[in-house]
Amino acid sequence: MARKKKEVIKTEETLKPSSREVSQRIIELSETEKFVEVIVIDAPTYTYDYKDYADTYKTSTKEFKKFVATGDFRISCAVTQEQITRLKEDWNIDVYAMVEHALINEASYGMIKHLMARMGEIARKNYLNDYTRLDKLKIKAYNFANKFHTKKNSLGYVSTIEYKKKTKVKSHRDLLKLILRESNTIDRNGKWGYGNFAVCSIKTATILQQHSQYIMFPQEETVSNPGKPYPIGQIAGVTIYVDPFMLYADTNIYIGVKTKTGLPGIKIFVYANGLETKVETEGLGAPKIVYKMRYAMVDVGESCKHLYRKIEYEEESLNSLL
User: CATH code at 56?
Assistant: First the structure.
């Protein structure tokens, strides 16, 4: 006798209507406005007007239009019926409201990670484009040497040798020179302003704090949401941010500029009416709370590829700078 299939009942219930306040809260938690311009829109498709250079010599500008279509990003969390009942009866805690608050925080985390990944991708491309013919020849030589390199590390994995072009520095002054060089390069290539922020590791930020012109930010300004880049100071007009996801000894520095409205750059368009929280119940299992948000991260203008750069440095002396 064949078994009967278990009946699956799927229902959806909207808990809270979408609102502009919720979308603005996500933007504030993610702190994306510190790095790029964020625009809250009232339609899923949007037309953005901007101006960019009309020729390769960057002597004249022209008005352009960018059509933006927002996409759906979903974050979900499952809770059990026991959790809903016990927390409500024993502690008078609304599980739905608690989970919704947690999902809003996760949405802000996801947005800032998406932004940092996109800026890093553009910066790495510019870094590789600056390789000289000798650097490219060394890369081919290293790749050829890896075919005969069979050294294994302590975990048993085969380690490979990789060529990385790193600028050697002796002090914090040399490190500042590299940052200002890339900051001015952004202004030269993009013509929309110099690089006004730099994202680095904790070690790099601590080295820069030794400079006499470093301006330390007050503690109330540096306190930020955990897990997101936070500012610790400013030097030569460049605000220094620490990325908590970078390793302590990471020697990469990402430099960029936040452009004004109507200029090229990375722009984030958040659809305010596309924010909603739903409860999906399947059969007799645990209800799943789904938080849906709609936004688009767009590279506006041809000059956008020149607005973010990367530095890789190496300490020349054997002793650490710290």
Answer: 3.90.1690
